[in-house]
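WARN retry 2 of 3 for item q-0093 after timeout on previous attempt; input resubmitted unchanged.
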Amino acid sequence: MGRAAFYNGKGQIRLEEVPERVPGPGEAMVRVRACGVCGSDLHSFQNRWPQPPVVPGHEVAGTVEAVGEGVSNVRVGDAVALEPFVSCGECRPCRSGQYNVCTRHEFISWHRDGGFADQMVVPARCLLALPEGPAQQYGALVEPLAVAVHGLRRAPLMGGDTVVVLGAGTIGLLAAAAARALGAGRVLLTAKYPHQAAAAEQMGIRDVIRLGEGNPAEAILERAGEDAVDVVLESVGGAQAIDLAIKVARRGGVISLVGSYVMPPRTPLSEVIGRELRLVGSNCYGLIDGRSDFALAIDLLASGKVDPAPLVTHRVPLASIQEAFETALDKSTGAIKVWVEP
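OK item q-0093 returned
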């Protein structure tokens, strides 16, 4: 038997004993080493996004403990990160390499059991081996870094571009660091909380604009220059954030939408048309120009070009998972990324 977590009503998550599974053909069993609490996890925790009765958690790093028949991409003992998309491989998007918009995809932690558990059994093709060093040490950040990388590549980011990243949560901070590593000429970041600004400073991100201190659009344009922002990566979600993105992007610039949106923007779309802005949707991660965002994310960590050390602010044992979620939800704790470690 092992332990696994399940949501138990608004603001509650509980541990249960579950039988240990044996990996079938094409599957692998992973001993979870760390699983990050994502913003989407917090939405489900608060019952804003009610999810099926499966084990949550998709920011996973662990060690392969067993493999089923036919598995060759990973071996027992490998340190791995999880790419949670399970695509069909047959629909038109899959055949064209856009498996992240597969018409019949499943997502581990939503359709299949995720990583807030001692162990998990997943399709082996969803696992990527991690080299020794920083990529292993911060393996549970590969998934959010891949989200950030995909948003930048969807723009696409060109060498020398001025980039504004809206939001200094985990994905925003990683996007700012990745933009610099991928050749941006200048990177500006908006931060709501002092601890986010401090983390950005520790990561070498100097152009930080504190929200709540005057007009954010004016502050960005004063710092970057009028009609100078080539790429805006919006990581927060919400009408206010996309309105800000539209205001600061240069004529002919691009806005990469990474956050989750429920309400429409208030800015008239005539602004988008008249200034010929491009609004680009960015759905998690995928394959661009034959290279996966996950592979690039691993390379950025392994090379030290992205140092995520300041992001992991809390490490909580699986036995205290309720505390982990409450800590992640309460920004007065200084939380950026909370890891649950069995």
